[in-house]
Amino acid sequence: VVATDSVMGQQRLRRGQQRLRDLTLRNYDHQCAVCDIADPPLLIASHILGWSEWPEHRGDLRNVLCLCRLHDALFEHGYWSLTDDFQILRRRVSSAM
After folding, report:
1. Would you give the distance in Å from CA 68 to the centre of its chain?
2. What distance in Å separates the CA atoms of residue 48 and residue 55, rounded to the nearest whole number?
3. Three-class secondary structure of residue 33 per DSSP
C-alpha cells in the first residue's frame, strides 16, 4: 500500500517567472522554436544557461527559448544544444548492435 495523504510544507517560488514566460511566448509568437507546436499549455520558457548555475542570466530574455515540453526535455538531457550562432547541434547517437 502506498500512502497518498497530503502534508503541509514550504515552497521556494521563483519571482518573475510568469512574466518571463509571457514575454518569451510573445517573442516566439506562441510557438516552439524548434517545431510547429503552438499550444500554450505545451510551451515552456526554457533557459539556455541554466537557472541555478547562472543566476545573473535568469531574467534575461536573450537567455530564454520558447520550447515545447518534448524539446525542452531533450535540451535539458543533452540530446541537442545550440552553437554560439544559434544553430542546432544534435547529439551523436551510437548504433549499438
Report:
1. 8
2. 12
3. coil
**Which three cell numbers, joined as nine digits, stand for 93?**
547517437
Query: Can you tell me the distance from the alpha carbon of 75 to that of 55, in angstroms, rounded to the nearest whole number?
Result: 19
Running DSSP on this structure, what letter comes out for residue 91? P
Instruction: Report yes or no: 16 and 59 within 8 Å, Cβ to Cβ.
Output: yes
Q: Write down the pTM of the prediction.
A: 0.75
Among residues 13, 10, 82, the alpha carbon closest in space to that of 46 is found at 82
**Residue closest to 25 by CA, chosen among 43, 47, 49, 50:** 43
**What are the pLDDT tens digits along the chain (97 aa)?**
888 888 888 887 777 788 999 999 999 999 999 999 999 999 999 998 877 788 788 788 888 999 999 999 999 988 888 787 777 878 776 666 5
Residue indicated by cell numbers 544544444: 81
